[in-house]
Design brief:
It is globular and about 80 Å long. The protein is of the alpha+beta class. 31% of the residues lie in helices and 21% in strands.
Length: 539
């Protein structure tokens, strides 16, 4: 006899339907909680939410990714995870309602969810094989069992109130057609057990990174052999509202695809250098890297997703080993000197691949394997223990975080992660400028108003910044002192503001003599362009 034949099709009241949805939600919670616990024995990245989220990021069109970064900033990953949880909750509730009449089919639906998570986990670039499927599959199995059991407590019973024992509480047993009290007790027990399993899994997963955290906390970076020069007097303008010349590490922008920030232990970290034209392959430990001659430089980084006037740009003091020196020791020659490789592919512990032009990283600029940021070891969010920093290139073609592998190859032979998704292979930073103050739609008082902001053209330098009020003539702004051509430059312009609405526009000229273009483009495929402007109302 089938499951459906055992359970007569009775009309479902609103309360029972609500209980069915609750049963599905509890089953979904149980599935995710057990998956979290199982992921302790595998790795946190194998959990279904992280795996499905990563797969969603990988398959999202570049324009959609760009929209998410533009609208949600560094909270884009949180929004994605909340979105996945919302969809899973709705799916689970729907299965719970379906289970009122089709228990086995609904339980199979939970298993299907587990299969999706397992496929997403094993399909990730950093997958460790079939073991990554275990959290999703075992979690789904637990969720299916919970749903099947709870749906049984909701099954319509043929026995009516007259069959109840004398003195039984009305509505507590089968008198209204389903075991309400039994369902509440079972659902509560399942929810409590799931919460316990999930909390334990989260705690153990957090503990798994404690060794890495302790190692970072105990790390003292050696003094660089080539320290950065002091920031020139006058490089940082003391104007309220202008971004500080050096961006604090905690405020530095973060744009990457990692839903779980890797916690890499420096004692086990290794960097492999190999590939085309590498006559002396190498494997370096973290201590090997620290024993090299370290340099310290102020460098401004820019994300290719930064819109005109956007916030994804910042300057930090980076400490690291020269990348060009390491490559040269491995026998690498740039294409201009006959080297066969024109692309350096960096790989992260999370499977990210980023391709940089070999010519650029070996042309004398301060391309670094960075170990420090603003005088301290790199924060985990920014790539601890080691990341790449290459001035003059957008991050997606230069700034690999949590780096573990360097392969010399060619642009024709291999397309890294972002190139496969429609971004350009080569992406030098475009000359840009931004008005930091006054803010858009500000209402300053008539009279003297200081207009100020930043401009950047890494590895070329900024020679001039001009400001225009409405459709008037361009007027030259005062430039702050320059730190180096690899850092942004602050500027200011005293404006005699008159009452009414006004549009302030800025443009910069780099050291090559190229004036920032007015032509407005989006960030895809190689960075935004156009003039930044703000509208204010002077009172």
């Amino acid at each position: 006899m089938t499951d459906d034949e055992k359970e007569p099709r009775r009309p479902s009241g609103p309360l029972r339907v609500t209980a069915g949805a609750l049963a599905g939600a509890v089953a979904g919670f149980a599935s995710l909680a057990l998956a979290e616990l199982v992921s302790v024995a595998v790795r946190p990245q194998a959990g279904p939410v992280v795996a499905v989220g990563g797969a969603a990021i990988d398959r999202t069109p570049a324009a959609v990714k760009d929209w998410a970064v533009r609208n949600f900033g560094t909270d884009d990953k949180l929004v994605l995870e909340l979105g996945i949880l919302a969809v899973l909750t709705l799916f689970a509730c729907a299965l719970g309602i379906a289970a009122l009449r089709h228990r086995r089919a609904a339980a199979a639906g939970v298993v299907l969810f587990g299969v999706v998570g397992a496929l997403a986990a094993v399909g990730r670039p950093d997958s460790r094989g079939l073991s990554d499927t275990l959290p999703s599959l075992l979690g789904a199995g637990a969720g299916a069992a919970v749903l099947f059991f709870l749906a049984g407590r909701l099954a319509w019973r043929e026995q009516a109130r007259e069959d109840e024992a004398p003195g039984a509480e009305a509505g507590a047993g089968s008198g209204d057609g389903w075991d309400r009290r039994g369902f509440v007790i079972a659902a509560s027990a399942a929810a409590v057990a799931s919460a316990g399993a999930g909390a334990l899994g989260r705690s153990l997963n957090g503990a798994s990174g404690r060794d890495a955290v302790a190692a970072r906390d105990a790390l003292v970076l050696p003094a660089p052999g080539s320290p950065a020069q002091a920031v020139p007097r006058g490089a940082g303008l003391r104007i309220p509202g202008v971004s500080p010349f050096v961006t604090p590490s905690g405020s530095f922008y973060r744009v990457d695809t990692a839903l779980v920030v890797p916690k890499v232990d420096v004692t086990t970290w290794r960097l492999r250098v190999h590939g085309k034209g590498v006559s002396r392959p190498a494997v370096l430990s973290f201590d090997d890297l620290l024993r090299r001659d370290l340099v310290e430089r102020d460098i401004t980084l820019t994300c290719v997703s930064n819109e005109v006037g956007g916030p994804y740009v910042g300057t930090a003091r980076w400490t690291g080993a020269r990348l060009a020196d390491l490559l040269a020791e491995c026998g690498v020659r740039p294409p201009s000197r006959g080297g066969p490789a024109d692309q350096l592919v960096a790989r992260s512990v999370d499977g990210m691949t980023i391709g940089s032009p070999v010519e650029d990283v070996m042309d004398g600029r301060d391309a670094l394997l960075a170990v420090g940021m603003n005088g301290e070891p790199l924060p985990f969010d920014h790539g601890f223990p080691v990341r790449m920093v290459v001035p003059g290139l957008y991050g997606y073609v230069s700034a690999c975080k949590w780096i573990t592998d360097l392969e010399l190859t060619t642009f024709d032979a291999y397309d890294p992660y972002w190139v496969k998704r429609g971004w350009a292979r080569r992406a030098p930073v475009k000359t840009q400028s931004r008005i930091d103050t006054p803010k858009p739609f500000a209402r300053p008082a008539a009279g003297p108003v200081m207009v100020a902001g930043v401009a950047w053209a890494q590895h070329r330098g900024i020679d001039k910044v001009e400001v225009r009020v409405d459709d008037g003539p361009w007027q030259e702004a005062r430039l702050a002192a320059e730190d180096s051509r690899d850092t942004w430059r602050q500027w200011s312009f005293p404006w005699r503001a008159t009452k009414g609405g006004h549009t302030l526009t800025v443009r910069a000229t780099d050291r090559s003599g190229r004036v920032q273009t007015e032509r407005r483009t989006r960030t895809v495929p190689d960075g935004a362009s156009g003039w930044h402007s703000v509208v204010v109302t002077v009172e």
